[in-house]
Specification:
The protein has 6 helices and 2 strands, in the order ααααααββ. A two-stranded antiparallel sheet has the order 1-2. By secondary structure, it is mostly helical. Helix 2 runs antiparallel to helix 4 and helix 4 crosses helix 5. It is extended and about 55 Å long. Strand 1 and strand 2 form a beta hairpin. It starts with 8 loop residues before the first helix and ends in a 12-residue tail after the last strand.
């Protein structure tokens, strides 16, 4: 029997796990506008379906509570608090990781990353392609038409 793949709807809607219903509604509306097939074409259809599925779960109180319980259960299994998690199997991997760890005096810090801005990036949206309108909703940038690049 094939197990149904679990989807993290909080990640899909880009929300914290303690998000309020107003935050969930706002995130859904913004993402639905951006990824709606009428605006994003056929490429946005799959993303739009996931966004709609997430909102359907979060807008129903009972479904949201059941989803949050399942998510908490999965988190506890990952950390090994519940049987079936990694800590309840073989602990030899912990000993191996400790042996492989480098001494602290051999640590050399990495240089900070160099940030280079693209020369032809749109000045209005800083290359993102999206801007917030007067209502706070995400819209395609009018200057670059959502591409993030200056028109030549």
């Amino acid at each position: 029997m094939r197990q149904k793949q679990f989807k993290d709807y909080y990640v899909i809607l880009n929300l914290p796990r303690n998000a309020s219903s107003a935050q969930i509604k706002r995130a859904y509306r913004e993402l639905a506008l951006v990824h709606h097939p009428d605006h994003a074409g056929t490429g946005g259809a799959e993303k739009f379906i996931l966004i709609k599925e997430a909102y359907d779960v979060f807008s129903n109180k009972d479904k949201k509570e059941e989803y949050d319980r399942e998510l908490a259960l999965r988190d506890r299994r990952k950390t090994g608090v519940l049987p079936g998690g990694p800590a309840h199997h073989d602990l030899s991997f912990v000993k191996e990781r400790i042996k492989k760890r480098a001494p602290l005096n051999d640590f050399t810090p990495m240089p900070p990353p160099k940030v280079t801005l693209e020369k032809n990036q749109c000045p209005a949206c800083s290359g993102h392609g999206l801007l917030r309108d007067k209502y706070g909703l995400l819209r395609n940038c009018g200057l670059c038409k959502g591409t993030g690049r200056k028109k030549k």
